[in-house]
Amino acid sequence: MSDLTTLTITDALKGLESKDFSAVELTQAHIDAMATAKNLNAYITETPEIALEQAKASDARRAGGGAKLLDGIPLAIKDLFCTRGVQTTAASKILEGFVPTYESTVTSNLFEDGAVMLGKTNMDEFAMGSANTTSHFGNVINPWTREGDDTPLVPGGSSGGSAAAVAARIAMGATGTDTGGSIRQPASLTGIVGIKPTYGRCSRWGAVAFASSLDHPGSFGRTVEDAALILQSMSGHDPKDATSAKQDVPDFAAAASGYIKGMKIGIPDEYRIDGMPEEIEKLWQQGIEWIKEAGAEPVKISLPHTKYALPAYYIIAPAEASSNLSRYDGVRYGLRVEGESLDDMYALTRAEGFGDEVKRRIMIGTYVLSAGYYDAYYIKAQKVRRVILNDFVEAFKQCDAILTPTAPSSAFAIGENEDDPIKMYLNDVFTVTGNLAGLPGISIPGGVDAQGLPLGLQITGRVWDEETVIKIAANIERAANFTALPQTLAKAAA
Ligand code: GLN
Questions:
Q1: Residue 230 and residue 106: Cα distance in Å, rounded?
Q2: Where in the sequence is the domain holding 147, given as residue range(s)?
Q3: Low-confidence ranges of the chain (pLDDT < 70)
């Protein structure tokens, strides 16, 4: 771990500006670090040549006085974002070898702001999972391990490669997507910050679709300010995405230095679930103390329909996925397995190209959308979604934002929770409500559990009010002063 890879983005930008180092040096330090962390399997495709070329261009821009928001900052891009001329797989065999001829809006915004792409990160196949164990390209390993125990742990999912890369200091920040928790949950399990903005804040154009009404692009960083800075660059109206909103993008990074005195922060009773480890409850109480010390007032709120969120999600998300994934038919993209007839070719391609979890979702989605069951399942789930949104609307009459734990556990071992899909689905119990309601949310590391593993706290805010979410998170960040390092890095630093 070189000094350059331990910097925050904010400090790296200062260093670049004062010529302490160049973007090429900063990028090279990360490329070197990537070579020593291959065991994490965080990247599906590394793009060192592109990175160095972009870094060179960035140095030239800075020398000419035209440096932009993220100029020269090496980032990792979730392999769900299409990148022109660079393989984009969504971690699926069916897209192996697919090289887009276009750039997603999110990545093009980042490149426009001078960001450097180190590579495309591993993830759960089509973003379906909570442990990064469904990728066609193998599991991602969390750089954190339990004290005195080398058992490989999951980084969370589905943006597990992005989270692991940022935690392991082989990227300064990263993009992710969050459909049910896929940014916030891996951020919690790897001890970093992850933000999911309001639905419509970041364009989905050029991001491989999982469940269109729930998919939210967002960012990872090692500090609230870093994650906010990346999000700022990614955000903005895009005429190419009909659900992208015409909203001005505030200075998210500036919000990280804001105060929260006088704010009311909701604490929902319904998030105290059976079987939640005591340490998570303790951290939640600690979080409440921290916001009180910062001058905010905790208020009890009720989100009575929380328990219906996961069941509704597991109808709506597969329904949308089954429709979105119908385009992978062996004709237009990626894999094709020839058959005796056209129908045969479709069937053989999809049978071989999709993994088990993706097939499970397609079957559930097709079932709940079928003529006989549409009203009973899909329409019902849509009604539940509305009721969950109404819970939040009511709650936000009494508070400015909501504080909860991010995930019901710390990182678990690869293979754990695999016997029963429902167990895996429970990982998103605290995050999925924010996707159903389209609200901005963030996870910030609050501390470690008895095994030395990070635990996250989540702030959820009103629509379009990322700034309040960022402010509260930054205040908790200052109070928590989370400095623990993944064991592998701690050893190297010692
Ligand atoms: N774990 C959830 C799922 O498998 C959410 C994934 C996501 O947010 N992309 O659907």
A1: 10
A2: 3-265+398-493
A3: 1, 493-494
